[in-house]
Every structure is written in C-alpha cells, then in structure tokens.
Amino acid sequence: MASNIIIIAILVVILLVALRGSIKHFKGEGGCCGGGSSSVKEPDKKLSGTVIKTKVFMIDGMYCENCTNRVKRAINRIDGVSAKLNLKKKQAVVKYEKEVEDDTLIKEIEDLGYKVVSVQ
What pTM does this model have? Predict the structure, then answer.
C-alpha cells in the first residue's frame, strides 16, 4: 500500500514538471527548438527593388522566437521576397519585389515542420 502512494506521488511530480514546461512552451517563453529568451532576433532583409505586393501567411506551430527566426531565415533566402514575423499573431508578412509563387514559400515553411493554414 505504501509503495503505491510513493509511485503515485512520483508520477504527480513528473506530471507537474511536464505541465509547467508545456505552458511556457505554448506561451512562447520556453526554450523549444534551442530558442528561449536568450535567442537573437533574425535581422530584417532589405529589398533593393520596388515592392509590388504584400501577402500574409498564417502559420501554425511557431511557439518561440527561435521558431520565428527559422521561418524568417527560410523565407528571406528566397530571391525577391522579404518577411517579417509576428509570433503572437502566428503570421509572416511577406513583401515581394518580383513574382514568386505561394507554393515556393509554403514549401520552405512546411519543410521546417510548420503548417501554413492560409495565405491572404
């Protein structure tokens, strides 16, 4: 009987520690993906030409600053586009100086493990 109580107590402690870490993770405060509060913000990319259009990509699965940095880096590697990410809104605002297919950006984002839920 006493051994059951000890086992239950250990399981409760493990559950509480895991729950605390998960709450921080989903608030964007945890160190998921190697990020966390000490991560460095990815610099903005400057376009050299005239901006011809702007689109907003809604992205599911970004939980911390490191997640947004990964997505921003991937988009900014594409010639002719520049992205600014908003973690709270879970979106990437992409400016175009030349025509680039949405599928190209979606593939880059989803190859990182995130899900593009809409493009506006």
Answer: 0.68
